[in-house]
Q: What sequence folds into this?
């Protein structure tokens, strides 16, 4: 009997030490602390004591950056993907199938790790910034958390999981506002390490002075981190800013900002074009001559606009376009609103412009990349991936996860009332009810491909149910035999029983 107990303590200590090693590999704790904890576990007199010591190593602040962290705990339920047959659709069995996951992204990320650990090339996230204070955010996430702790506590464990999903040359972009950007940068430094900081892009989203008392804040930030900066090369991709056009089978970028860009502002108003007819008056003899030369060589082209003015335009081959990444991206927020309105949806505030996300993906990802957005909201990232694929024949796959948050304008939840509808409409050219009367359809062809929508379901681990209810084919597996299935579930789903304190 005594031998049995000693054997059991030894086994538990071994398991706990292995768990500490895993946390070390996942960068949740530091090496010096891991070593000390393992030593203390070894010296523990009872199983309980060993477990309590191991719990001390649940989280550890590495940069001295203080906030109220949520701890991971084990619960009694396994979380798994369950296909939502009503919202999923197949148009072409040979085409790509993208994914939309409904629910808390913490559970979604744990489940995604089963199939996609180290395989995701680009992550774009746009977490909720909150309004006047981050307490606003508490309503959808942690009931009792307050202020900025809330955002950081929520993001921290999710970033740890996101990092594990990224491939060795992967990149993560995070949109964030002026108020929170410094704190969120600190959090990213902690999880991704400062040496993997690529830079912070500035997204200019508004023009004009607005009602600002002091500084006009017409921009957000996009923190950019690599999984491993020595493996990452953003400039390997061509930037495709703006829509491309096909001429004789080749892709060109059409740029009608050319006079302003090359010769400076027109009359102090940034957004007005300089038309050819007004060139002499505003730019003088020399500039007109220079433009005329370029028009002769074909470097520039004149095109009539709807008012009859000649617009000076430049077409640049996509393959020749500069592959530098500039730190300021100017795409106004209202474009995001218009993108969604064109699809017949007006019930989601502040969607990001499709072009913003496609620009980021355009320079960060290969054409067959896997792209993840786990604060997907209205599904902008999905549309951006589909548009890029349609422009350059790419086979990028998107995975979106977002909470089915109920708001005043989305009584059935965001996923039902916005995200799935948006994707269905742009992918098939039809609403779920078969109607086609939205503006986007008049100017665009359906973007194609198939969509799998998954809900997050729960099941108790101490029964046969996990083996019958979990569908391995939703995790990229062929159907498994009974024995293999049991082994596969046991090996992979324990991590999904993790949950966060205070939920
Ligand atoms: C700022 S919005 C993202 C908007 C998105 N970029 C777009 O263009 O539509 C953040 C979204 O994340 C969702 N969200 C917040 N907390 C979440 C969580 N823990 N898990 C999943 N989604 C969450 C919110 O419901 C909201 O729709």
A:
């Amino acid at each position: 009997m005594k031998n049995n107990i000693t054997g059991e303590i030894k086994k538990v200590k071994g398991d706990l030490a292995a768990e500490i090693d895993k946390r070390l590999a996942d960068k949740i704790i530091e090496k010096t602390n891991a070593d000390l904890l393992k030593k203390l576990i070894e010296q523990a007199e009872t199983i309980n004591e060993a477990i309590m010591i191991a719990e001390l190593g649940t989280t550890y602040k590495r940069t001295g950056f203080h906030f109220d962290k949520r701890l991971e705990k084990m619960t009694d339920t396994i979380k798994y993907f369950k296909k939502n047959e009503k919202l999923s659709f197949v148009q072409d069995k040979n085409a790509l199938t993208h994914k939309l996951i409904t629910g808390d992204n913490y559970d979604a990320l744990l489940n995604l790790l089963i199939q996609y650990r180290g395989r995701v090339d680009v992550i774009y996230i746009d977490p909720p910034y909150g309004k006047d204070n981050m307490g606003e955010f508490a309503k959808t996430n942690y009931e009792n958390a307050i202020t900025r702790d809330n955002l950081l506590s929520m993001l921290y464990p999710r970033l740890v999981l996101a990092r594990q999903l990224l491939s060795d040359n992967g990149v993560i972009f995070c949109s964030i506002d002026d108020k929170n950007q410094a704190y969120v940068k600190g959090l990213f430094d902690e999880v991704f390490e400062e040496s993997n900081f690529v830079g912070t892009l500035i997204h200019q989203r508004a023009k004009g002075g607005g009602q600002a008392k002091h500084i006009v804040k017409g921009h957000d930030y996009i923190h950019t981190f690599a999984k491993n900066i020595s493996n990452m090369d953003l400039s390997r991709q061509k930037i495709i800013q703006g829509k491309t056009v096909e001429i004789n089978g080749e892709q060109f970028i059409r740029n009608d900002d050319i006079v302003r860009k090359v010769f400076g502002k027109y009359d102090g108003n940034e957004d007005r074009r300089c038309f050819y007819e007004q060139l002499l008056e505003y730019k003088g003899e020399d500039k007109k001559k220079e433009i005329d030369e370029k028009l002769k060589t074909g470097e520039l082209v004149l095109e009539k606009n709807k008012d009859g003015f000649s617009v000076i335009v430049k077409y640049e081959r996509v393959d020749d376009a500069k592959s530098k990444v500039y730190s300021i991206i100017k795409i106004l927020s209202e474009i995001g609103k218009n993108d969604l309105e064109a699809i017949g949806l007006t019930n989601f505030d502040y969607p990001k412009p499709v072009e913003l996300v496609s620009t980021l993906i355009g320079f960060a990802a290969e054409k067959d990349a896997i792209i993840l957005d786990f604060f997907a909201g209205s599904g902008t990232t999905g549309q951006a991936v589909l548009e890029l694929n349609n422009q350059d024949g790419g086979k990028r796959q998107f995975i979106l996860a977002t909470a089915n948050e109920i708001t005043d304008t989305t009584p059935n939840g965001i996923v039902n009332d916005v995200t799935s509808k948006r994707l269905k409409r742009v992918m098939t050219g039809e609403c779920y009810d078969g109607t086609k009367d939205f503006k986007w359809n008049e100017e665009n062809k359906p973007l194609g491909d198939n969509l799998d929508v998954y809900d997050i379901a729960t099941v108790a681990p101490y029964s046969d149910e996990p083996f019958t209810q979990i569908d391995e084919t939703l995790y990229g597996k062929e159907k498994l035999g009974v024995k293999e299935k049991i082994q596969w579930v046991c090996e992979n789903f324990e991590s999904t029983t993790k949950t966060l304190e205070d939920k």
